């Protein structure tokens, strides 16, 4: 009965988060009042039930605004949510005055749950019998708080640039379950420092074992991999390499696509061997699989990057008679067809390693990593030979592999943000009817506007336009 009670409580919080402002609608203390380790575990993972809990509904505005997909004007006009339609063309105000934004509210409800758990843990005595569970629960709460804060930063803040991060606006950092506390935005530097600190703390607490199923719980390899992802976003390639190595040394399985039934609609199990940590983004028509959104197509420029023998063409896509591609469910198989995987997997860690080695000029190491990937992505008789002209060419080849391997995970938005900071001048383009739209490099629109109600209620500083 107690488990059902806490599952209901968490479900209620997330439902409220979609409709009410985080600060306007306060959860009743009688609904959420955990006292034991079992209570804390239930709050953090909802008993491992898929589709509800802290692993799901991460912001997907960046995915909506990326260039991995396209549709025609009629399909664009038929989208249900204004933010989906407006993110597609990078409108100034994608919400059209709507004061409530689920992408913001869901993040802060998740952070609230983490803070509740961390607060309860202070009053639980640690014993020999409960120490392992206590540590894992604390590490899990710190891990979740870090990745939800990171999701906020990637959505509502400008890209990290070490030259300007001290003066750029970050997010309000919440460390207490007291939601009456009004906080202003920290700097971007402080925001990333807080994220990294939570993840660093989790390293000494989380389980080292990577489970074969129910990979909703974070583990040591996932925490190291997440640190590598975040340091990559920060263009700190030394640290990204360090933590990617630590993740790879703990767990490094790769799927051999030769062994998969690639013609199936759902090729991958959500607990497949590559998944280090399962989580998904909030779903929209733009992020749905082909069967649910047959007029939402994968960008043709992305499809052209694949070699004709690449097994990912079969595993990732279906094609119509006009050779237009729809995506399959990829690593979120078994969940809603519109929810894209944004968790962590060993293929991403491998590509972080490859990019960092390429940037350091370690071309042999980068070559070996790409060769390892290709052995598992091509027929055994058609494995491409990896050659680099120089370090810049090696970096570009790895970046192309990131596009091909990590599609519809939110990585394209993240990568373009960081690559434009270093001066690559990548421009997003859309065409609807006779009208063209552009998102220029380093545009202020790479930080989505904060919800109007948060500006009014908390006096937060709005992002510039």
Automatic annotation (TrEMBL):
Alphabetically sorted, this entry's keywords are: Cell outer membrane, Membrane, Signal
- In this chain the RagB/SusD domain maps to 348-419
Q: Which domain of life is it from?
A: Bacteria
Q: Which InterPro entries match?
A: SusD-like_N, SusD_RagB_dom, TPR-like_helical_dom_sf
Question: Where is the protein situated, by its record's location annotation?
Answer: Cell outer membrane
Q: Which residues form the signal peptide?
A: 1-21
Instruction: Report domain SusD-like N-terminal positions.
Output: 22-232
Q: Which family does it belong to?
A: Belongs to the SusD family.
- Name of the molecule in the record: RagB/SusD family nutrient uptake outer membrane protein
What is the protein's species of origin? Sphingobacterium tabacisoli
């Amino acid at each position: 009965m107690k488990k059902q009670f806490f599952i209901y409580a968490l479900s209620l919080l997330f439902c409220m988060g979609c409709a009410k402002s985080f600060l306007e609608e306060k959860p009743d203390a009688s609904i959420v009042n955990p006292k034991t380790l079992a209570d804390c575990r239930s709050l953090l993972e909802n008993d491992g039930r898929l589709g509800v809990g802290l692993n799901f509904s991460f912001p997907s505005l960046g995915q909506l605004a990326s260039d991995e997909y396209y549709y025609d004007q009629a399909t664009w006009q038929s989208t249900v949510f204004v933010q989906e339609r407006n993110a597609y063309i990078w409108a100034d105000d994608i919400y059209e005055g709507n004061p409530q934004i689920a992408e913001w509210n869901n993040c802060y409800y998740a952070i609230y749950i983490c803070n509740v758990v961390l607060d309860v843990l202070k009053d639980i005595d640690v014993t020999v019998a409960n120490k392992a569970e206590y540590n894992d629960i604390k590490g899990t709460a710190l891990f979740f708080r870090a990745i939800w804060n990171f999701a906020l930063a990637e959505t509502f803040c400008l890209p990290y640039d070490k030259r300007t991060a001290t003066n750029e606006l970050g997010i309000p950092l919440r460390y207490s379950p007291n939601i009456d506390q009004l906080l202003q935005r920290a700097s971007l530097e402080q925001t990333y420092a807080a994220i990294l600190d939570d993840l660093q703390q989790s390293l000494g607490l989380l389980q080292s074992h990577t489970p074969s199923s129910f990979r909703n719980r974070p583990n040591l390899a996932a925490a190291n991999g997440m640190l590598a992802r975040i340091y990559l976003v920060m263009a700190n390639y030394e640290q990204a390499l360090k933590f990617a190595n630590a993740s790879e040394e703990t767990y490094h399985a790769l799927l051999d696509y030769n062994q998969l039934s690639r013609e199936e609609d759902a090729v991958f199990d959500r607990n497949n061997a590559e998944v280090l940590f399962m989580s998904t983004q909030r779903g929209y028509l733009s992020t749905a699989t082909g069967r649910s959104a047959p007029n939402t197509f994968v960008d043709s420029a992305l499809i052209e990057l694949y070699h004709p023998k690449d097994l990912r063409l079969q595993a990732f896509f279906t094609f119509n008679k006009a050779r237009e591609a729809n995506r399959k469910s990829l690593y979120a198989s078994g969940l809603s067809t519109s929810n894209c995987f944004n968790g962590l997997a060993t293929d991403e860690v491998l590509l972080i390693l490859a990019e960092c080695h390429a940037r350091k000029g370690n071309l042999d190491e980068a070559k070996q990593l790409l060769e390892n990937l290709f052995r598992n992505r091509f027929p055994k008789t058609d494995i491409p030979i990896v050659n680099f002209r120089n370090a810049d060419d090696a970096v570009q080849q790895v970046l192309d592999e990131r596009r091909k391997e990590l599609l519809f995970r939110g990585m394209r938005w993240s990568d373009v943000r960081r690559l434009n900071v270093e001066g690559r001048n990548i421009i997003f383009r859309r065409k609807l009817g006779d009208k063209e739209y552009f998102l220029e490099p380093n545009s202020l629109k790479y930080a989505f506007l904060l919800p109007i109600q948060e500006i009014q209620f908390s006096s937060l500083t709005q992002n510039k336009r």
